């Protein structure tokens, strides 16, 4: 699809019928990283995934702001109809911003391990992440090399990143440019988005990892401010909570069945 500012975005159809369930991935990811979860969610609606601008098969073109990227997701729902928005990390932030902006389009929202105020993080987290990603030995010789480079026994980040590479003549390259990802993340540490939280009236499920990247207590406070919200912290999980599919679906599926029963 083409956005209102002319950028091409890839939308993935995962199947299912009924009201849409829009899946928004995290930084450096792509829609197909949701594949296993998407299949499990098909009984609850028409499941779609969006490659955020600069990610997957979408065009790499700014502006790299939370508002613009949330609007991209908004324009998907404007075409397919009101539905549930499910977001991990960066995608969770965009889901919150969209729910605040367009209550007519968002019936419920699921946010996985993302806060709205990272302004107080110590040091230079964006610079550190940029240096880490920039030091990766591109091109990678194989997907197994990608898994080893990004491997983590708890969150299975290696498998996630192995889905987020492009095969070229000289090997595998990350689909997202590090400089674009850095520009996106830089906005998170410059501005807090509590006003978005305070504007949300739809049911919300806030899922926090045991080993979370979110400042302590922030997701619980977000849930306190949203009238119809529940905060769940899942033991034994890292930032990529849905890598533990059983634990993740155990809280998401009941929410999708009866979101307003969750307080």
From TrEMBL:
SUPFAM superfamilies in the cross-refs: alpha/beta-Hydrolases (SSF53474)
Domain annotation AB hydrolase-1: ranges: 19-245
GO molecular function: hydrolase activity
Keyword Hydrolase annotated: yes
Keyword tags: Hydrolase
Domain of life: Bacteria
Alphabetical list of PANTHER family matching this protein: HYDROLASE ALPHA/BETA FOLD FAMILY (PTHR43194), PEROXISOMAL MEMBRANE PROTEIN LPX1 (PTHR43194:SF2)
Protein name per Swiss-Prot or TrEMBL: Alpha/beta hydrolase
